[in-house]
Amino acid sequence: MEDFRILVSVDGSECSDRVVAMAAELARAAEAELDVLYVSYFASETDATEDSWLPDIVAAPVSEQQEAALARARALIPARQPVAFHQRTGRPAEEILRCAEEYGSRLIVMGRHAQHGLLNGFLNGSVSQEVLNESPVSVLVVK
Amino acid sequence: MEMKTILVPVDGSEGSDRAITEAIALAEACEAKLNFLYVANINQLAINACLSDAILEAVTKAGQVILDRAMEMVPSGIEKEAFSETGSPAVVILDFAENNDTDLIVMGSRGLGVVKGVLLGSVSQYIIEQSKCPVLVVK
C-alpha cells in the first residue's frame, strides 16, 4: 500500500505498550509508516522547578514524561520499521485528530482507557470516545 | 503481537461492507483467518413463544444472504468461515470473540437503523467498551 501512515497515540502506560505492539504489527504487515504521538496538557515550559504537593500525574515535569513515553514506544518498534515521533501540547483528542489530518494518517491506533489515567477522567471524558466519534479515518481501540 | 483470527460482524449495512473490505485487506497482509458472524437480533424467548417458523426462516435466510455476500468478497487463498447466531448482537459478538481465539474485531462505526445524530452505533459502543481484544472501527 502506498504512503500508508498509521498514527499511534501513546501515554507511557502499560496499555500503550499493547497499542504500540499492535500498531507495529499492522505497519509491518501493511508496509506502513508509523507516527508515534504523545500529547501533554501542558508545555514543558510550565514545568515547576520546586517540589509540588500535587500528585506526579499532575505535577511531574512534562518533558520527562514525554521522553519516557516516546522512548518506551521506540523500544517496542523494530529497527527497520519507518517511524517518526511527535509531541504535542493540548487536549489529547483534539491533538490526535489534528495530527491524523496533518500527517494524512489512514488509521489511528490508541488505548481505550483514558490517556493520562486519572487526570483524563475529570478533565476530559474519554479520549478514545471522542476520537472515535470525530475521526474521519478508521480507529483501532486497544484495551 | 500476532494476528491470526479476525472477527467481522456483518449486518448487511454500508458500514459493515466497508468493514469487510478493510478486514480482507488486513487478513491478506497478516495472513489471518476471517470469521464472519451474523447475529439475528431475536430474543430466544420470543422464538420459543410466538415466532412462527416462517418468520424465523425468513430471518435466517436474510442472514445467510449477507454472509454469502461477505464470503464471496474474500479472494481465494484467505481462510474464511461464516457463522450465524441469534440473540442480542453486542452480547453474542463478544461471546463469540472470546470463545473463538479472536485477535481483532473489525466492524463498521454504525449499523442499521441508526438514530440521526448518534455517531457511533450502540452495538459498536458496547463492544468497544467490553471487548477483551482490540477493536477496529472502520469509517
Looking at this protein, list some descriptive labels.
heterodimer; A: 143 residues; alpha/beta; Rossmann fold; 6 helices; 5 strands; 45% helix; 22% strand; B: alpha/beta; five-stranded parallel sheet
Question: How would you summarize the topology of this molecule?
Answer:
The complex is a heterodimer of chains A (143) and B (139).
Chain A: E1 5-10, H1 14-30, E2 33-40, H2 56-59, H3 62-76, E3 83-89, H4 92-103, E4 107-111, H5 117-124, H6 127-134, E5 138-142
Parallel strand pairs in A: 1-2, 1-4, 2-3, 4-5
Chain B: E1 5-10, H1 14-30, E2 33-40, H2 44-49, H3 53-73, E3 80-86, H4 89-99, E4 104-108, H5 122-130, E5 135-138
Parallel strand pairs in B: 1-2, 1-4, 2-3, 4-5
Helix pairs in contact in B: 4-5
Query: For the residues shown, what is the average pLDDT of chain B?
Result: 87
- How many strands in all of chain A? 5
Poorly predicted regions of chain B: 112-118
- Name the poorly predicted regions of chain A: 120-125
CATH class of chain B: Alpha Beta
Secondary-structure element order of chain B, N to C: EHEHHEHEHE
CATH level-4 homologous superfamily of chain B: HUPs
| Class from secondary-structure proportions of chain A | alpha/beta
Name the overall outline of chain B. globular
Mean pLDDT value of chain A: 85
Strand order of the largest sheet of chain A: 3-2-1-4-5
Q: Please, could you describe this protein's structure?
A:
The complex is a heterodimer of chains A (143) and B (139). Chain A is α/β, with parallel strands linked by helices and 143 residues long. In chain A, 45% of the residues lie in helices and 22% in strands. Chain A has helices at 14-30, 56-59, 62-76, 92-103, 117-124, 127-134, and strands at residues 5-10, 33-40, 83-89, 107-111, 138-142. A five-stranded parallel beta sheet of chain A has the order 3-2-1-4-5, with helices on both faces. Chain A is globular. Chain B is α/β, with parallel strands linked by helices and 139 residues long. Chain B contains five helices and five strands; from the N terminus they run βαβααβαβαβ. Chain B has helices at 14-30, 44-49, 53-73, 89-99, 122-130; strands spanning 5-10, 33-40, 80-86, 104-108, 135-138. A five-stranded parallel beta sheet of chain B has the order 3-2-1-4-5, sandwiched between helices. In chain B, β1 (5-10), α1 and β2 form a beta-alpha-beta unit. In chain B, α4 (89-99) packs parallel to α5. The interface between A and B is medium-sized, with 25 and 23 residues.
